[in-house]
Write a structure and sequence with these properties.
Oligomer: single chain
Number of helices: 10
Helix content: 25-40%
Low-confidence stretches: 1-5
Strand content: 15-25%
Radius of gyration: 18 Å
Mean pLDDT: 91
Largest sheet: 7 strands, parallel
Number of strands: 13
Structural class: alpha/beta
Order of helices and strands: EEEHEEEHEEEHEHEHEHEHHHH
Shape: globular
């Protein structure tokens, strides 16, 4: 691979214009285990979280509704990192409601958002959350309902000092505009990747506005196969895997993209984080496509 440090110029982003983070972070969704199990061994999950930071991840994405059985992502991160390093930004999401046995059953209304934020504070063992997203539409496709009443609650909690920066997740361009009319939006987290570029216009809008775009399922998330001749070909050109090529594609696609691939496997983590050193050229991007 072309050796490029993870925090080199061009590989960082000014989150909210105030916090510099490398453009390759870590997603904690899989740390407890897959949603339908089995749970990951706690010591292994803690080791993965710690290793992610050792490898240069300075942005970690989590949520209180990331759990498998009694194993919870926030608890793992607290055990692994507390007291959290001052240069590590931890983002969380509120909105989707999930029963103790794992079923998604609804979305939090305005009155349920403060308790959800307070739950994240307790679980992570912090006094203030670095970044909180309002997640829209549970885990399905984005809905077009107004989000202002819910985003107002998060803006108030930001004003109270419980949240530093705000984000929105799984939103339409109209919902992003509505949120920005209420308070500054530091980040958008929508589905986007080399094989799923439906939100290309929103990615560009975020870049123009200085808003981070943090794709979920950039590696398919188990829902889209990354098997493809062109991804394999680009990876082989650079002595890399198709997964690393997919991560690098996002970093090359837009300066606003901060990749947050997740895993509960140490070898997969090492592979993902090494993708920061992979630099794609125009021929690679033309082959993979860029909307």
């Amino acid at each position: 691979m072309t050796p490029t440090p993870i925090n080199s110029p061009g590989n960082t982003f000014e989150l909210g214009g105030t916090v510099t983070v490398p453009r390759l972070g870590f997603g904690a969704m899989q740390l407890p285990g897959r949603w339908n199990g089995p749970a990951v061994d706690h010591a292994t999950a803690v080791a993965v979280a710690r290793r992610a930071v050792e490898l240069g991840a300075r942005h970690i994405d989590t949520a209180a509704f990331y759990f498998c059985g009694t194993s919870r992502a926030n608890d793992i991160l607290r055990n692994a990192l507390h007291p959290h390093p001052v240069d590590v930004t931890i983002a969380t999401k509120v909105g989707p409601l999930r029963t103790a046995t794992g079923e998604m059953y609804g979305e939090a209304g305005p009155e349920q958002l403060r308790p959800a934020v307070e739950q994240n504070l307790r679980e992570l063992g912090v006094d203030v959350l670095d970044l909180v997203y309002l997640r829209v539409g549970r885990l399905g496709a984005a809905a077009s309902d107004p989000i202002g009443d819910r985003f107002h609650v998060l803006a108030e909690l930001r004003d109270e000092g419980l949240i530093r920066q705000l984000g929105v997740s799984n939103v339409t361009r109209e919902q992003l505009a509505e949120a920005r009319s209420i308070a500054p939006v530091a980040a958008v987290q929508n589905r986007f990747g080399v094989l799923d570029q439906a939100d290309a216009a929103l990615v560009d809008e975020c870049a123009d506005a200085g808003i981070a775009f943090m794709p979920f399922f950039a590696l398919g998330g188990g829902h889209t196969s990354l098997a493809g001749e062109n991804l394999q070909k680009v990876g082989e050109r650079h002595g890399a895997t198709a997964f690393q090529a997919a991560i690098a594609w996002g970093l090359a696609r837009s300066p606003s993209i901060v990749q947050i691939p997740g895993t509960s496997s140490l070898p997969h983590l090492e592979e993902n984080m090494a993708a920061a050193r992979l630099v794609l050229d125009e021929a690679d991007m033309e082959l993979l496509g860029r909307r």
